[in-house]
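Morning, I've got a small favour to ask if you have a moment. It would help a lot if you went through both lines with me. I owe you a coffee for this, so here goes:
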Amino acid sequence: MAPLLNWTADEIKLWRGHPVDEVMRRADSGAILSDYLAMQVPARMVRAVAADVRGDHDGRAAALRALLDVDPWTQERNSFWPWAAEFVDALIILGHSDQARQMSDDFVANTHESRSHVRALAAVASARISQDSGDIPAAEESFSQALELFTDGQQDTAAARVLLSRGQMLRRANRRRDAVESLVRAREFYEGVGATVLVKRCDQELRATGMSWRGMSESEATRTSAKNSTDSGGYVPLTPQERSVADLVVQGMTNAEVSRKLFIAEKTVQYHLTHIYGKFGIRSRTELAAVHLSGDVPPV
C-alpha cells in the first residue's frame, strides 16, 4: 500500500506545481532499481510524470519502456498500474506511431474483459491512435467511451484528463466550439484541486482557440473579444446563468425585472451583464440584442 500512496502523493505534488527536483529528491530513488514490482512500477510512473511536467517526452517514454518486460499486459495478467496508455501517448508525441499502435492494439486485446477503469484506459489509447492517424470521428468516439466509463466509476481525475486530451484534439481539428467546452470542463476540475500545471495547459489550449471562455481573466477577455465578433463567425460561450440573463434582457426586461424572474439579486444581474458584454466585446443592451439573436450562441 505504501508505494501506491507515495506515488499518488508525488503525482499530486508534481501537478500542483511543486519543484520537480525537490519532489524527485524526496522520492525513493532506489525503488526504480528494486526487484520488487510494487516499488519499481510506481517509481517509474513518478519519473514519467516528472518528465511530462518538464515537457520531456523522451524521458517520459524512457521511464515507462522498461515496464514492457517487468509489468506486461497479457491475456493472463493485467497490471495493477495505469501506465500503458501514458506510454502510448508518449510514443505518439515522439513520432513512434507504429510502436504506439502495436502497444495500443495489444493493450486493447488484453483488456476487453477487464475492470471498467482499465477498459477506459484502453479506450484512451485507442483514441490517441485514431487521432494520430487522422480519424477524428473514431478518436472522439473512443474518448467518449473512456469518459463515460471514468464518470460512471467516479474517477474524476481520469475523466478530466480525457477532457483535456479531447479538447486538444478538437482544437487541432479546428472544432473550436467543442474544444472550448471540453477544455473549460477540464480546467474547472483542475482549478478546483489546485493542479496548477494542468490549469496552465488548459489555458494555453483555450487561448489558442482564439475564443472567450468561462473563467478567463478580464485582460484575457479584452484581448480576445475582437476574435469573437459575429463578423468573423466567432463563438462566445455563455454559462447557463449568463444565457438566462441575456435571453431576458434582449426581450426588453430591466435588471430589476430580470432579478425577479430569476430570483437573483439585481447586482447579480448587472454582474452577469458585465461579463456578457466583455465576452461579446459590446457595451449596450441594443448591441447585445443584435449579437445574441443573430446566430447560434449555445451555453458551455
Remarks:
- The chain has two domains: 2-211, 220-292.
- The radius of gyration is 22 Å.
